Amino acid sequence: MTQYSEAVQTAQAYYNSDDAENFYSRLWGGEDIHIGLYQSDEEPVVDASHRTVARMCDKLGDKLKGAKVLDIGGGYGGSARYMAEHYGAEVVSLNLSEVQNERGRKQNVERGLDKLVTIVDGDFENVPYENDTFDIVWSQDAMLHSGNRTRVLEEVARVLKPGGSFIFTDPMQSDDCPDGVLGPVLDRIQLETMGSPGFYRRELERLGFTLRQFEDHTEQVPRHYGGIRETLEAREDDLRDSAISNDYIANMKKGLQHWVDAGKAGHLAWGIMIFDKQ
Predict the structure, then answer these.
(1) Quick check: 156 and 132 in contact, CB under 8 A?
(2) Domains in the chain, start-ordered, CATH in brackets?
(3) What is the pLDDT of residues 79-107, one digit of tens each?
(4) In angstroms, rounded to a whole number, what is the distance separating the alpha carbons of residues 230 and 146?
(5) Tens of pLDDT along 2-40?
């Protein structure tokens, strides 16, 4: 059995916790857990999150139809189900949280998608598939949880077929971010570093990829985390009734504000990146 890295173990323990499961399933609806593309500050996170998935699929177009896709860090499997339902893609959602995976498998069966969507317990630093297996690798706001992102990208390059595409989003530091200013954000996610647009370009080009597009949506970062914080405050009593601890709620509000502050200061970056493997 593969031994998870310390960073992956930290993320796994967090997302398996009762507090996290109750929070994300109640606030997001147990389908998606990622930054949304908001059309207004008042838009519900669920709608904005779904729009991100649809936008990424639009960027892939016909290449997604009937494709074999790997979603690394797939959460509840919502993106995998969308690709299967709308494009007939055969999708593997690789995710480290057994709690999320159990919920996702039940949803696959309920929606009649269990023949197209497979949810696998595992992590993206050690992808349990052979070389050149997938037409597309997909990831949403997951790679920041790795302490070894270079290893993750090497695994992506290994399992992706030549001519295949890697499409992802990831909360990143900006390329010109001053040293030391992201301490509160990094402390929140218990990591020492974040990726950056420049990091992903350099590492993926080294691995034989060509950047097709970086569709920059950095302005959505403070909008998203600020909206989550406001929703949390509005529903605080209801969420406490869902067995979410007072400490978790207090820490979440504090942590969300750090993301908002860093985003408004221009220290973060986020958007849809697409790379094609040569």
Answers:
(1) no
(2) 6-16+47-218+270-277 (3.40.50.150)
(3) 999 999 999 999 999 999 999 999 999 99
(4) 28
(5) 567 888 888 889 999 998 888 888 877 778 889 999 999
